């Protein structure tokens, strides 16, 4: 899967998204201008030590990004203005999930050209939007669910590590 951030503004969001990409194997595509430096300490801190587990590409503008796409690339545009819910789309491996900047979303002239590929996360009427990194996680994990989480570890086990006892244990 591919995650595309168009003009991201907040380094902590992009760092969190980079960590999600590392955990899922998704490729991150960043479209400039960015609202931060890739050397930003907040960006690195939010991504923790996952930067070497993921791959990302930076493009100087949308035209360069679009011109480099494979011929049959499928793109889905996340927006509060979409006609369909994100879980109504049928995702395939290699799809591009496109998200806009935190304060403005995606440009409407872009959305109008691909309106049938616009997806929305349902929320209450007066809510403007969800946090960008949360939105990416919601949509990406639905796409991965539709692919049976192919290639991802799907079960975990307790470690048996020593834990400090606490009175709260009496409540569980």
Description:
This protein has helices spanning 11-24, 41-47, 62-67, 108-113, 132-146; strands at residues 2-6, 27-31, 56-59, 75-78, 84-85, 96-99, 118-120. It is an alpha/beta fold and 172 residues long. It has one domain (2-153): Alpha/beta knot. A 7-stranded parallel sheet has the order 3-2-1-6-4-7-5. Helix 1 packs parallel to helix 2 and helix 1 (11-24) runs parallel beside helix 5 (132-146). The radius of gyration is 18 Å and the shape is globular. The N and C termini lie far apart (39 Å).
Task: Kindly list the characteristics that best describe this protein.
single chain; 172 residues; alpha/beta; Alpha/beta knot; 7-stranded parallel sheet; 5 helices; 28% helix; globular
């Amino acid at each position: 899967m591919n995650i595309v951030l168009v003009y991201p503004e907040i380094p902590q969001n992009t760092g969190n998204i980079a960590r999600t990409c590392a955990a899922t194997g998704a490729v991150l595509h960043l479209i400039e201008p960015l609202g931060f430096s890739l050397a930003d300490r907040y960006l690195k801190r939010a991504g923790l030590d996952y930067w070497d587990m993921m791959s990302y590409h930076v493009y100087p503008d949308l035209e360069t990004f679009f011109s480099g796409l494979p011929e049959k690339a499928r793109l889905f545009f996340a927006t509060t203005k979409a006609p369909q819910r994100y879980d109504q789309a049928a995702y395939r491996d290699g799809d591009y999930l496109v998200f806009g900047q935190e304060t403005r979303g995606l440009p409407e002239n872009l959305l109008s050209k691909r309106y049938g590929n616009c997806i929305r996360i349902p929320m209450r009427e007066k809510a403007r939007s969800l946090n960008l990194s949360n939105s990416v996680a919601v949509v990406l994990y639905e796409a991965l669910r539709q692919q049976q989480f192919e290639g991802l570890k799907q079960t975990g086990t307790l470690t048996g590590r020593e834990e400090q006892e606490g009175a709260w244990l009496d409540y569980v």
